[in-house]
Amino acid sequence: MSTKPTTQPIQNSDKPLEELQDESILKLLQVLDKVRAEEMSCDDFFDQLDQFVEREVKSKDAAMIMPLIREHLDLCPPCSDEYEALLTILENIQEE
Ligand SMILES: [Zn+2]
Q: What are the extents of the domains in the chain?
């Protein structure tokens, strides 16, 4: 999850922006979170972990290419540990 800083100033125009309904957006986000978490199981994660780590080591854009993996890392500490371990190994190999 990345939030890019908005540098554009908010301009006051004649047309007032419709106010967003925070509560319904929050609910929507919660639903999306749930769906996403269910999409990626730990098994799925491990299936793609090698690929993800290789990508990360080579081009540092793994999280962009495979956002579900990135998300699972955030949601699942045990998988995150595995990822860190594998990343460390691959980085050491690359340095040799
Ligand atoms: Zn997991």
A: 40-95
User: How many whole angstroms from 18 Cα to the centroid of ligand 1?
Assistant: 39
Q: How far is the CA of 69 from the centre of ligand 1 (A)?
A: 9
Residue 14 CA to ligand 1 center (angstroms) comes to 49
Whether this model's pTM surpasses 0.70: no
Ligand 1 is a single-atom ion; what residues have CB below 5 A from it? 42, 76, 79
- The DSSP annotation for the chain comes to ---PPP-SPPPP-SSPPPPP-HHHHHHHHHHHHHHHHHHS-HHHHHHHHHHHHHHHHHHS-HHHH-HHHHHHHHH-HHHHHHHHHHHHHHHHHHH-
3-56 tens-digit pLDDT = 666 666 666 556 656 666 788 888 887 776 665 555 789 999 999 999 999 999
